Amino acid sequence: MGTCEPYPDALEILNKWYDEGHIITFFTSRTEEHRAITEYWLKKHGFKYHGLLVGKPRGGNYHWIDNHLVKATRFKGKFTDLVLANHTIEVFEP
């Protein structure tokens, strides 16, 4: 865990988003016992971020419930600038 290398372009893109004013929070399936090594790894590689949430459910489908707009970016193999896209999402009935 502490010796792997970052995905190509991840550091550049994420730090760019941070510098542009985006709130960067990593959400990981790692457990609380892995927090220190994860924070060490992020610092070692120079990632700028605001928060680290551990304990994300592993696999399956989960919901983040908040009274504020939540944006999530799903990693699909390459970090690039964000683009606008339309997708079908699940929402609570009005």
What does this structure look like?
By secondary structure, the chain is α+β, with helices and mostly antiparallel strands. It has one domain. The protein is built from two helices and two strands; from the N terminus they run H-E-H-E. It has helices spanning 10-19, 35-44; strands at residues 25-28, 51-54. A two-stranded parallel ribbon has the order 1-2. The longest helix has 10 residues, at 10-19. It starts with 9 loop residues before the first helix and ends in a 40-residue tail after the last strand. The model has no long low-confidence stretch (mean pLDDT 87).
List its traits.
single chain, 94 residues, alpha+beta, two-stranded parallel sheet, 2 helices, 2 strands
Based on Cα principal axes, name the global outline: globular
Residue fraction in strands: 5-15%
Strand order, largest beta sheet: 1-2
Instruction: Indicate the mean pLDDT.
Output: 87
Encode the helix/strand succession as letters. HEHE
Roughly how many Å apart are the termini? 43 Å
Continuous helix count: 2
Estimated helix fraction: 10-25%
- Biggest beta sheet attributes: 2 strands, parallel
Task: Point out poorly predicted stretches.
Answer: none
Number of domains: 1
Number-wise, the strands total 2
Task: Describe the SSE topology.
Layout: H1 10-19, E1 25-28, H2 35-44, E2 51-54
Parallel strand pairs: 1-2
Describe what is shown at a glance.
The protein is of the alpha+beta class and 94 residues long.
